[in-house]
Amino acid sequence: MKEIEIGQFRYNLSKFDMRDILWMSAYFYKIRNFSKSMVKNEVVKGCSDSTSDIQIRLNKIQDTIRKNFELFGFRPFDTPIIEYFSTLAGKYDEDSEIVGEIYKVSDRGERKLGLRYDLTVPMCRYVASQTQLKLPFKRYAIAKSFRDGPIKVGRSREFIQCDADVVGIAGTDIEAETLSMFYSTYTELGIDAVLEINNNKILRGAFLQFGFDEKELESVILSVDKLKKIGRDAVLDEIAGKGLSSSEASKAIDILSCKSYDGISKLAENELLKEGIEELNKLVKSLDLFEVNYRINYSMSRGLNIYTGSIWEMYDKSGKVKSSIGSGGRYDKVIGEFADNGKEYPTVGVSFGLVPIAICLENKNEKSEISLTEIVVAPLDAELIVDAQLVAMSLRKQGLKTEVCYDYKLKKAFSYSEFVTAKKLVILGKKDVEAGVYTLRDLETKEEEKVSFSF
Which residues sit opposite 316 in a β-bridge? Predict the structure, then answer.
């Protein structure tokens, strides 16, 4: 034998003595098994484990969002994680970005399936399938979605969405009420937020007014949406690079750069543009009544192939998170496309960005943020464990989050109480049990009191 194969490599034996060969074999064996163990215990890229302190924060955010959803009459609703691939792909082209990000799976019957990439498509599929559905249909969903896309800060492959939608009500009145809920939730969470609003009809109408074709709108507006990031000249260069008229685009951008309602109204000639301006103006008047902090950005766009009217994004005024921390808009045609009946189903929705919201709030670093257990009960002897459990049970009946420390040493009980950020410690010794009392220590003030108990 002149050669030996180790792993994926081949070595000429004439160049090594037997000790070298044995050493290399052992080395590659260790590397191979170490690599296997790493893969075995490694989390999938784009996903993450959620430790208790992180999960407690996320749960509190979700609880606040859920409370406000229900406060405004939205009802819980969920759909399967797995859908038919054709349902998820919808009418998108096979080479579109969203189709490429769908996790594709199949079942034993070799049916083509996929993991949902958002909560909107399954909801639209459901409504389209219910011919006798009572409208308006107001639902909320807080659940996981999956996208096999690029990974960056704030963008994972597995993520939780918090959505609320209303199906069956047209006009800006329902939009204003929904945005009132949207904005007030951020306020309750402690985020100084500002709502950025526009209307897709304004974008479409401005470019149609200067001779652009409907088929060109999506491409040109994708460039215009970068105005804040790269500036006017770079946007016009990008449009020219697509083979479109930069001079006519410049005229449309002049309209979209207006700072006032009167200014843009005077320049509007296209009927679709005028309609969008009127809808936005009506929405703004309602937002003023609801005391929503907003700003108008006529150049802001959101999916022209989905949104049909008002659109919005929420931003953190402190600038800690640069991207939007929530979004939504009106999309009246999507459900009809699923039903394939040519009808429009007036629909409006909002979506909270759970991850960016958590980033906005993480600078507090207060123990109260991750506090869950309120009281730790510490029996000082193993014989007192049943008494400790009964004390804990009586405290839980009072609504206090309580757990028992099973170490039986006071030092360990203090250490564990600090770990779980408990506020109080119940100390239970033999003499205490005999006297029918326990010592309740406030872990912040260090004050103690004797509390009577009986079972």
Answer: 193
Query: CA-CA distance, 420 to 53, in Å (whole number)?
Result: 10
CA distances from 332 to 166, 216, 217, 307 (A): 11, 21, 19, 7
Helix axes 172-189, 354-361, angle to 10 degrees: 40
Within 8 A by CB and 6+ apart from 388, the residues are 377, 378, 379, 404, 426, 428
Helices 246-256 and 214-224, axial angle in degrees (round to 10):
70
What is this structure's pTM? 0.82
Q: Which regions of the chain carry the CATH code 3.30.930.10? A: 52-81+116-364
Contact 151, 159 (CB under 8 A): no
| Segment 403-451, tens digit of pLDDT | 999 999 999 999 999 999 999 999 999 999 999 999 999 999 999 999 9
- CATH class, domain 371-452, is alpha beta
Superfamily of domain 52-81+116-364: Bira Bifunctional Protein; Domain 2 (3.30.930.10)
